[in-house]
């Protein structure tokens, strides 16, 4: 993973964690305040459920992003190896042609 990609990934993780902490703090503050109507309690539980899904999706998104970066790096590595092999084959052809001409 390049340094730039690593920084971008760390930034995304930090932003997700900050947003998650902020919402969790809000939920806890409302809960501590107490005296919720049944509808407010239901809304709070729904919000908690959404936050849990958000956290789970965050982990999935970041995992996919990391895999995408790693796959791109592997593909680039393979392209380099293919180019090296092509150069070796061309060098071998040149050598064989030279040997054929010297006979």
Q: What can be said about the biggest beta sheet?
A: none
What Rg, in angstroms, do the CA atoms define?
28 Å
Total strands: the figure is 0
Unreliable sequence segments: none
- Counted up, domains total 1
- Class from secondary-structure proportions: mainly alpha
Q: Indicate the percent of residues in helices.
A: over 70%
* Beta-strand share of residues: under 5%
Ends apart, CA distance between termini: 51 Å
- The string of secondary-structure elements, in order, is HH
Topology of this structure?
Elements: H1 3-33, H2 38-102
Helix pairs in contact: 1-2
Write up what this structure looks like:
With 103 residues, this protein is mainly α. It has one domain. The chain contains two helices and no strands. The chain has helices spanning 3-33, 38-102. Helix 1 (3-33) runs antiparallel to helix 2.
Give a brief rundown of this model.
The protein is an all-alpha fold and 103 residues long. The protein has two helices and no strands. The chain starts with a helix and ends with a helix.
């Amino acid at each position: 993973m390049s340094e730039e990609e690593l920084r971008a990934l760390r930034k995304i993780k930090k932003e997700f964690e900050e947003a998650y902490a902020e919402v969790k703090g809000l939920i806890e503050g409302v809960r501590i305040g107490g005296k919720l109507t049944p509808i407010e309690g239901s809304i709070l539980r729904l919000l908690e459920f959404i936050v849990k899904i958000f956290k789970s999706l965050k982990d999935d998104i970041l995992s996919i992003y990391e895999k995408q970066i790693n796959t791109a790096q592997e593909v680039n590595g393979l392209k380099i190896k293919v180019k090296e092999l092509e150069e070796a084959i061309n060098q071998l052809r040149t050598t064989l042609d030279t040997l054929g001409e010297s006979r």
